[in-house]
What we know:
- The protein has 423 residues and is mainly β.
- It contains three helices and 22 strands.
- It has a seven-stranded antiparallel sheet with strand order 18-17-21-14-15-20-19, with no helix packed on it. Strands 1-4-5-12-7-10 form a six-stranded antiparallel sheet, with no helix packed on it. Strands 2-3-6-11-8-9 form a six-stranded antiparallel sheet.
Amino acid sequence: MPIYSPKLNIIAGSNISVTNTTDSSTIAVANVGSANGIASLDADQKIPTSQIPSSAVTNFRNILINGHFQLAQRGTNITGITISGYYSADRWRTDIAGTVGTWTQSIATDTPSGTEFRTSLKMTCTTANGTLNAGDKLVIQQRVEGQNLLGSLKGTSNAKQITLSFWVKAGVANQTFIAELHDNDNGFFVSQSYTTAATANTWEKKILTFPAHTSGSFDNDANFSLAVNFWLTAGSDFTGGGSLQTTWGAGTNTRAVGQTNLSSGNVAATNFWQITGVQLEIGNAATDFELLPAELTRYRAYRYYYELGRHVTGLGNTSLMGMWYQSASQVETVFIYPTPMRAAPTGISTRVTNCMAVYAGLSTDFLDGVYFTQLTPINCLVFEGAVADGGGGTANGTTGYPGRLFIPSAAATGTLLAFDAEL
């Protein structure tokens, strides 16, 4: 005869186990469906995602960072792009091979009406290349660490599908583009095609589900394991192999079959591709875009790139950090990054005559940038002095005196100090 009947709240995805029961004990689970609209468990004895109320969907399901392009430490309008690099939106890399024209990458305020998005990434061709060489390509990509992909179970018999969702528009209607997952650890590729809206310059949401893959596990580390690739141009090395590679494979000439050459023609008003709301998640369904608090997006991005200061003409001096005089001719400081970085970063400092300065003791020492040493994922030593400087603008002060490192108002626009640990 039961003497206690507690009410049990079950969290989605939880497992229930009972031990030390007597031979007369029983457990009854009743009214589950009427309580939460959940009718059954899946094969893993978990509540299917499709039956979980939207308010209970877990956080950090979007594997990508800054998929709404809200953060752009490097700038919001970068012109003259012809080579690979990180240009505007944090975590989004432009991958270029060969000659694919000249491009402008901008952070636009044009977004799908009625959505939560306020910014988008826009690629505009300003100098065309209508005839591509075999190895030419232009891809917008985000690279992902292996340890952030373990939930996919790739390389096991329980491997899961992966779903990519995004909003996209282009200046020309009915163009074919390719989205691709590239397993960098094992050399596998899988692609899906999508078509821009039937009316030019119209936003549409796309949902692409990629098959599970039981071969080739992702490495459990902080290195580059997966690239999410959005193709914009592709030469015959990537398009000449017949049918598009819609199942995982190692071939390269089927990666982008059918891809539009966005660099053909020379009308910048229509030669553009624009995207926002990019989300990559494990499973065969696309959930609503995960809109994290702004500070979380920033700190997740700072793990890969942190810009301490960039000078803009007309805004006066740009303060960077406090320093002290290790000797009369050398200043230094230990700088701690706002969040641990993915790996020991590369310190980036503009090195132009008098591009930086230290103010101490009511006087100013002009420097030709600074140097970095003892770089770790947590901190580093930042210094400048006669020993390190090849000439010009060395420190000249009193040993032990504190000072303030800054970029003078007269420095060139774009003078900066940053730390880079990108994949």
